[in-house]
Amino acid sequence: MPSHANQAGRPGHPGRPGHPDPSVTVLGLGPMGRALAGAFLAAGVRTTVWNRTPGRDGELVARGAVSAPSAAEAVAASGLTVVCVVDYDAADAILRRAEVATALKGRTVVNLSADVPDRARESAEWAAGHGVRYLDGAIMTPTPTIGTPAAVFLHSGPAALYEEHRPVLDALGGTHTHLGEEVGRAAAYDIALLDIFWTAMAGYAHALAVARAEGIGARELAPFARGIGAILPGQFEETAREADAGTFSGEGNPLTSAVSTMEHVVRVSEAHGIDAGVMRAAEGMARRTVGLGHGTDGFVRIAEVLGRTGARGR
Ligand code: NDP
Fold first, then answer.
1. What is the mean pLDDT of the chain?
2. Is the CB of 49 within 6 Å of ligand 1?
3. For residue 35, what pLDDT is reported?
4. Residue 93 CB–ligand 1 contact under 6 Å
5. If you average pLDDT over residues 28-32, what whole number do you get?
6. How many Å lie between the centroid of ligand 1 and the Cα of residue 50?
7. Mutation probe of ligand 1 site: the residue of 26, 32, 194 with most atoms within 8 A of C-beta
8. Residue 97 Cβ contacting ligand 1 at under 6 Å
9. pLDDT tens-digit series, residues 215-249
10. Atom 1 in ligand 1: residue holding the nearest Cα
11. pLDDT tens across 172-213, in order?
């Protein structure tokens, strides 16, 4: 369970008594790194920036950021370094260079790059072995949300370290949730949430292709697509209770009925010569679950069936 969540978004007041001069270094100036650095600047945090490819910091420097000539000098400028690059191979390529690791000794890294939970655990181990204080994190919302109440950040790692740096992290706005001391937890939530997002987006992209083949434009479909999206939050709440309790009521919408409509999507798709791979995979999971005798159960029984072979004894 998250130990706490807080609404931040208090631009201009990231400091607190005893921390009069908040500062941060941002490593990685892709779209997200630039958004993070921009939010720190907007909140009055002294911000040093560095990126592998030079020239990405012009706008930030114009707004008051300090451009460091090297990653080692960048991390030496602040007690807290936020790294946000494409993945942990990229983060390692920066952080594990000898001169950077030396400069990081005794300082804190918050790694907001996306990757898998084991890479977060590995990074924490590396950090512990090099005297670097380490927090892991994940960003769940796109760049325009950063610095606004709509941003969502997940954190994991030592709670005391998180509390220490919260005043500066809060400058990023939005909701920050510390998910626990187990450092892989933020990445694990990220993976589960990305699983929802990308399969939903794949379904949406496929639906656009099938709709177009049937003469329906994306804008015509949009109001109804929005309606489908609006069904999901209620489904998540209701089925979460069922999934945790191990009951999967199919009353009103049994799996057998779901399989039937999924098969219709496959049929229409393939009649138009459109690859139905994503829906075929979903239909296959549902059919296997029906085949195991769960046809009258609700859709989320699939999760329990998948978990039978997928669990690693947890
Ligand atoms: P990218 O994921 O494309 O990351 C670009 C950054 O990674 C650049 O700073 C790039 O440096 C750096 N990079 C890539 N390879 C290396 C390497 N080998 N060594 C050093 N630096 C490297 O863009 P974003 O900024 O958008 O994303 C950053 C992270 O934020 C990702 O993990 C992403 O999943 C996550 N995120 C992004 C969201 C978004 O809306 N953009 C939303 C939520 C999370 P260079 O300029 O030199 O190529």
1. 92
2. no
3. 98
4. yes
5. 98
6. 13
7. 32
8. no
9. 999 999 999 999 999 999 999 998 999 899 989 98
10. 86
11. 999 999 999 999 999 999 999 999 999 999 999 999 999 999
Q: What is the set of domains in the chain, with CATH numbers?
A: 3-181 (3.40.50.720), 217-313 (1.10.1040.10)
For ligand 1, what atom is nearest to the CA of residue 35?
25
295 within ligand 1 shell (Cβ under 6 A) = no
Pocket flag, ligand 1, residue 139 (CB < 6 Å): yes
79-97: pLDDT as tens digits? 999 999 999 999 999 999 9
Query: Over the stretch 170-179, which tens digit does the pLDDT of each residue have?
Result: 999 999 999 9
DSSP secondary structure letters along the chain? --SEEEE---TT---BTTB-S-EEEEE--SHHHHHHHHHHHHTT-EEEEE-SSTTS-HHHHHTTPEEPSSHHHHHHT-SEEEE--SSHHHHHHHHTSHHHHHHHTTSEEEE-----HHHHHHHHHHHHHTT-EEEEEEE-S-GGGTTSTT-EEEEES-HHHHHHHHHHHGGG-SEEEE--S-TTHHHHHHHHHHHHHHHHHHHHHHHHHHHHHTT--HHHHHHHHHHHHHHHHHHHHHHHHHHHHT--B-TTS-HHHHHHHHHHHHHHHHHTT---HHHHHHHHHHHHHIIIIITTB-TTHHHHHHHHHH----
CB of 152 sitting under 6 A from ligand 1: no
